[in-house]
Structures are given as structure tokens and as C-alpha cells.
Amino acid sequence: MNTAPQTHIDMQELARRIDALRPTLLRLAQLQLRNPAWAEDAVSETVLAVLQGAQRFNGASQLKTWIVGILKHKVLDQLRQHMREPVAAGANDAGEEEDLDALLYRSDGHFRDMPEHWADPCSELQRDQFFAVLEACLEHLPNRQGRVFLMREWLEIDSRVICQELDIAPTNLWIQLHRARLRLRECLQANWFGAPPR
């Protein structure tokens, strides 16, 4: 039996909040789907689901968290629907095979340049500017790396399922995730942690 109090949602206020959140939802969907039409579909379906389910929102989480949770499911639906369609390689995929290890590590396996101290990650993650930089870094990942990384880390899809859906070997998945993490680390190091104070 659910004893959580029901929270009455003013539909005009809800529409205003959805409208303000829509650009963020669209960016999140585009980061994963890499197709503007699919991302727009996922966001539209999310908005429809939020409006239809507004009276079931019980206030147990923040409204934004609830809406982003719905978006995750709609993005998964879009991925399932379009997973078997070929994805065109992007211009930045050409350098994907570049040996990042040689750029980051010395021959003895140690970092060429030690990362800056990243301070307290919890407090850093609270800053909106950090998320803006992170989103920009994600957008610059090669298509396949970005897709695999977001499927695993944002959508929390099981590795086995990703391998089946993308028809890749587990070793290839690990390599793609490793390269994506290295690229994100370098981008965040250059644009956030190693950047001058804002």
C-alpha cells in the first residue's frame, strides 16, 4: 500500500516547467540518439507521458528527476526501435583508432602528465557549469564511442545486451568504453579541472 502523499500539480505550472526543461531534455536525447528526429520524438513522447501521468506524480523525487527518468525510458524505446538501422559514421570517427595510450602514457605505463587534483567530486557535480562542459565533451566523442558510453553509463544497459544490439564482441565494447573514458578525461581536464577558475 502506497502511503506517500499525492501532490497536486498545477497543469499551467507543469507546462511552464516542461517548456523550460525541454532544451535540456533535447540535448540529453541527442547525445544518446545522435539523430535530431529521433531525439525530438523521444522528447515529445516524454512530454506526453508527463502530461498524462501528472496526477500520479507523488513528489517522492524532484519533478526534473522524474521527467528525466521518463526520458531515459523513451530514449531506450527509440534505441530499440532504430537499433537495427545502420548509423552513418560521423566526420570525427576517422581518428577513432588513434592510439590514445601513447599520448597519455609513457612506455613504463605511468601517466605522461599527472591529472590535476579534482577536489571533492560530490560538490563539483552540483555545479551546472560542470554539466555544461560534460555535455560538450560528450558531444565531441566519436559517434560509436558516444553511443556505447551513454548506453552503458547513462541508460545503464547491460554490457551483454549492448554487445548483442550493436553486434560487437565484449572486447570491442571494453575498448570503446576505455577510449571514450580517456577522451572524456582529457576533455574535462582541459576544460574543467585544469581550466582557470570561473
Features of the shown structure:
198 residues; mainly alpha; disordered N terminus
What does this structure look like?
This protein has 198 residues and is mainly alpha-helical. The protein contains nine helices and no strands. Helix 2 (36-52) crosses helix 3. The longest helix is centred in the C-terminal third of the chain and has 24 residues, at 170-193. The N and C termini lie far apart (49 Å). Mean pLDDT is 78; it is low at 1-6 and 94-98.
User: What is the general shape?
Assistant: globular
What is the percent of helical residues?
A: 55-70%
Radius of gyration over C-alpha positions, nearest whole angstrom: 19 Å
Write the element-wise H/E pattern from the N-terminal end onward. HHHHHHHHH
Task: Give the topology, please.
Elements: H1 11-33, H2 36-52, H3 63-82, H4 100-104, H5 121-125, H6 128-139, H7 143-153, H8 159-166, H9 170-193
Helix pairs in contact: 1-2, 1-3, 2-3, 6-9, 7-9
What is this entry, summarized?
Helix content is 63%, strand content 0%. It has 198 residues and is mostly helical.
